[in-house]
Amino acid sequence: MRYEICPADILYTFGAYGMPTRFTHWSFGKQFHKMKLQYDIGLSKIYELVINSNPCYAFLLNTNSLIQNKLIIAHVLAHCDFFKNNTYFSKTRKDMVESMAATAERIADYEVRYGKKCVETFLDAVLAIQEHVDPSMMRDIIPSSFIDQQPRRSAYEDLWDLDQRKIPGQQAIEMHKKNPKEPEKDILLFILENSRNLTEWQADILTMLREEMLYFWPQLETKIMNEGWASYWHQTILRQMDLTPSETIEFAKLNASVLQPSKTSINPYYLGVKIYEDIEKRYDILAKEATSRGEEMVTGREKIFEAREIENDTSFIRNYLTDDLIKQEDLYVFQKQEDQYKISDKQTDAVRNQLIGQRVNGGFPYIVVDDGDYMRNGELYLVHRYEDTELDLPYLEHVLPHIHQLWGRIVHIETILENKPLVFSYDGHKVFRRSK
Amino acid sequence: MEENQKSRFVVTEENWSLHRKGHQDQQRHLDKINEVLKSNLPDLISEENIILSNGKDMVKIPIRSLDEFKIRYNHDKSKHVGQGDGDSAVGDVVAQGEKKAQPGEGKEAGDQPGQDIYETEVSIEELEEMFFKELELPDLEQKEQSVTTLEDIDFTDIRKKGLIGNIDKKRTLLSAIKRNAINGKAEVAPILEDDLRFKTWNPVEKPQSKAVVIAMMDTSGSMGKFEKYMARSFFFWMTKFLRTKYETVEIEFIAHHTEAKVVSEENFFNKGESGGTRCSSAYSKALEVIKEFYPPTSYNIYPVHFSDGENMTSDNKKCLEHVDELLAISNMFGYAEVNEHRRMSTLMSAYKSIEHPKFNYYILQKNRDVYFALKKFFEKRTEGLR
């Protein structure tokens, strides 16, 4: 663990860039400006920033008081533990600080060679779709033969399949026609491998930015778990420490501000803590009952360690956000009705499903490449896997030109609007929309 | 466990003062905003925020092209989860519309789509500066009673002699280096008296000048909200522009249908009357007002007429006569026709034939034409008349 004490504007820089060594881009500057402004007028404050590396880096604000730092250090140690032990982080690169520095240097070099404006325009395009990677490729790849193979019900079952076997030649032609064979979730990778438009330096930048996104991805997928874990431990540790009354009050104040629930969103810190506490309580009771029966069972503490190891936000909520907890915490679903946001549902299933839905794919719409040679004209055909939430169409229309810039040919995206499929296309001049 | 970890952590405090990346990229962002402002000037000029700002210095302008566009969900059409105090019920209002949810905690990078359109604060002064750089006053005439007054002093010149307090160190050093270099020495010393450079001021003189804008507008039934807004935004900028050139700028509002009268600004832009249109009535009223209050010998006069072009055909002849009279005493006469569909209008067909250097006309079709109309009326001429 490495702690670095730094002034506010540096901490906010890191907050905006996600990493001290990341490349320069105006969007980070915009973010930095926004965050710094909020800090300057006292609206929000970042106390720390943790980086998933080896050893873990934690940046602490130089104006933190001693008791604040105690809380923060307990908090960041838990983050660090999470980075090291949660399975979704097991494949993230621990040398990303250095790698991003190298990326930044290369991009700066390209700026000198090809012009700032030119590189910036390209970065704009990549950043517009940077979340569309496939993080599952970082995990252990399960051999496809393993999935395809149906368990055999009898020794002769393979005989029945003989009739259904396709003629090899036909199959080969079919396979050849379609690229990708299966819908491809990793749009960046697909463009990287198939675009006819990328120069060498552009492909290089695309590769590097994809790496960075894959590194950040598990953090997007475990926000509630990770923040909940860190908050659970700073509470637990601080409560065991010998604090003076004034320190106790300062701790309570900071803790309360971090864990404050919101009417219009979910505070991941708060919800996370509540779920962990609930697991611990329930399993302690179960374990007690088990011991009284003479059986052995995991304790509550052991159970939360297990959860922090194997779950991500969606599975965590599905497995551990119980009906009782939803009722106890008064969670609800709300939506815009005319010009007001109103509570529309308090059914536990609805709340849970909505929360999970919001966390699927890190909260981003799920888009796949369906065809890289659409109309046999090298056009790119993307499909939005619609799950009851419509896309922001003005934004979509602005993203298409960016994808077009990367692909170099006409780009289509299919989505659903008011239960009807709709295709948006961009040909380099204008966005067209048509119903499918 | 805590005991043996003690040796396994490091606390450092580096000097971060050279880490300027955030500030540099922030500057790049601001530069981009300025680029956008500049390229969108025609649209910005007619922004309602500015025209109705009532003398505020800063206005908020939405800049759409600087959003970071992503494929994202439609916030208004999707459901969200919130948390109540324990007694929430279906149907409770949790927030008023337009309010955005989910403020970011700023922990991970790039996880906040940002729900709002990016708005930036721009000072009207900045916009003015950008805009007025492109405009120029036509035919500025020295009026009889104009007296030059000393306004200010400006350090604009460099000389070899001057007050020691006004020494220009950079230029002095440069000339010393240059002279030494000519002599084959790559040194600064010695600095001779001949090397000294001083900043010297020049007085800035501005003619004591007065101008009046005669704002005339057709308020007959055919002039709708859009037409009036165009006129309003035009006069707003025109007065502002003239103020940069003249010490005092007055503005007279003449509303007309078949008759014309002098009205207040409030009535000018808000009141509508029905009936036919006789434009000559406005012109004769303008002549009357000029005669009474604004002698052309001491005033620079700028009559501008806004109309939709629908005039009684029988009135056109009289209009032309009056326009001639006005042209004789004005610095510039402008006719702006708000005509969304570019139909042939009666007044335009009469004015087409006027060929006078001081006569300008422009047909405005949409908001952004205000900018082009102003540019046409106050065009920068390369062959300067001054």
Q: Your description of this structure?
A:
The complex is a heterodimer of chains A (436) and B (386). In chain A, 55% of the residues lie in helices and 14% in strands. Chain A is globular, with a radius of gyration of 25 Å. Chain A contains 18 helices and 10 strands. With 436 residues, chain A is α+β, with helices and mostly antiparallel strands. In chain A, a hairpin with a 4-residue loop joins strand 6 and strand 7. The longest helix of chain A has 25 residues, at 268-292. Chain A has helices spanning 8-17, 26-40, 66-85, 96-114, 116-128, 144-148, 157-164, 168-177, 187-194, 200-221, 223-240, 245-258, 268-292, 300-310, 313-320, 323-328, 348-359, 393-407; strands spanning 2-6, 48-51, 57-61, 331-337, 340-345, 367-374, 379-384, 411-417, 420-426, 431-435. Chain A has a domain at 364-435. In chain A, helix 4 packs across helix 5 (116-128) and helix 15 (313-320) runs antiparallel to helix 17 (348-359). Chain B is α/β, with parallel strands linked by helices and 386 residues long. Chain B has 3 domains: 22-68, no CATH class; 152-204, no CATH class; 207-377, von Willebrand factor, type A domain (Rossmann fold), CATH 3.40.50. In chain B, 33% of the residues lie in helices and 22% in strands. Chain B contains 12 helices and 13 strands. In chain B, the strands form 3 sheets. A 6-stranded mixed beta sheet of chain B has the order 10-9-8-11-12-13. In chain B, helix 9 (279-293) packs parallel to helix 10 (316-329). Chain B is flat and about 90 Å long.
